[in-house]
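Q: I have 157 residues here and want to know how they pack in 3D. Can you give me a structure?
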Amino acid sequence: MQIATLKSIVYKPKDASHAPRGYQRVPVQEARLIADYGIEGDRKGGHPKRNLNVMDDITLAELAAEGYPTGAGVLGENLILSGVDLRTLPQGTHLQIGAEAIIRLLDLRQPCEQLAELDSRMPDSVVGRVGYMCRVVRGGLIRVGDPVTLAPHVETA
């Protein structure tokens, strides 16, 4: 059963320079997720505790209403899901994106000091509201508009 739709995909290319302010992300319509890595070609990929940062449009709308800067990749997220509040899903939940890819929700993201460059109220004021750090359990091609469904727990890459 579909619980959400993939609304946005952004990543930081391996050859990207450091952004002078905030996060530098490139939006794409499709990307390949690589098991235990993240988005293929992403400079931030490969970390075991943060293959991907995934946010939802419900939380982003709340943050925008409070005057925080939002938009695809602005807060450092890689994927935005539409139609689900990720805060209501337990750690360990597996989500299938499109026909192949499966991600696991590991931990709520701990906001870092880099967010303060975007808004001086951050990071303390957004604890628990900047998405989930996720592991790519099974890779595959994902596209903006793909359905997102609950998936059975899969531990093989």
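Q: Anything worth noting?
A: The chain has one domain: 2-151. The helical segments are 57-65.
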